[in-house]
Amino acid sequence: MDELAGAVREARACRLCAPHLPYGPRPILQIDRRARILLVSQAPGRRAHQSGIPFDDRSGDRLRAWLGLDRAAFYDPDILGILPIGFCYPGHGTRGDLLPRPECAPTWHARLLALMPELRLTLLIGRPAQARYLPEARPATLTEVVRRYRDYLPDRFPLPHPSPRNGPWLLSNRWFERDVLPALRAEVRRARGRS
């Protein structure tokens, strides 16, 4: 059996935090050894939990527009891997979805990342991903980290979450669309070998 396929099968069968998941476990990830771009996000949302498809909602529409990728490229595991900090929907809290479960990333990430040798760019969406993969950025705010995206290139690129709930942040940080998104699209093209 292929080592990556076996690891993905095990990850998708994971029940480690089942007692803490109000809707039960349904690990959602997308990886392939040929992927050149990795998207590390927070955790699947309710719609993804229902469909089994990551970013199959308005957040995904916005994210694909930010990246300059159509749905076919976004869901092509040869191009883009998706490895959330928490693989399962954690449930809903008073201010949106709950934070990802803490067991998932330490259990699975290192093993799966070791099987993805072609990665050129890791997109770090939201604070949980940035806290794990940009330890040098702590204790900076998300705004400070995203504003200093050049400090983490060429292999890491921090982003806010594309959720509609972040509309106020986007409105008060117009520099993100003007300055960061063109650079992001250029880095995505570079990582794909389409500079």
What characteristics describe this protein?
single chain; 195 residues; alpha/beta; Uracil-DNA Glycosylase, subunit E; two-stranded antiparallel sheet; 6 strands; globular
Explain what this protein looks like in three dimensions.
With 195 residues, this protein is of the alpha/beta class. The protein has a single domain (3-191), classed as Uracil-DNA glycosylase-like domain (Uracil-DNA Glycosylase, subunit E), CATH 3.40.470. Helix content is 39%, strand content 10%. The protein has 9 helices and 6 strands; from the N terminus they run H-E-H-H-H-E-E-E-H-E-H-H-E-H-H. Strands 2-1-5-6 form a 4-stranded parallel sheet. It has a two-stranded antiparallel ribbon with strand order 3-4. A hairpin with a 2-residue loop joins strand 3 (92-93) and strand 4. The model has no long low-confidence stretch (mean pLDDT 95).
Please give the order of strands in the largest beta sheet. 2-1-5-6
> Share of helix among residues?
25-40%
CATH topology tier name? Uracil-DNA Glycosylase, subunit E
Q: How many helix segments?
A: 9
Largest sheet: 4 strands, parallel
- DSSP, total strands: 6
What's the rounded overall pLDDT mean? 95
* CATH architecture assignment name: 3-Layer(aba) Sandwich
CATH superfamily annotation: Uracil-DNA glycosylase-like domain
Distance from first to last alpha carbon: 36 Å
Poorly predicted tracts of residues: none
Shape: globular
Report the structural category: alpha/beta
SSE order? HEHHHEEEHEHHEHH
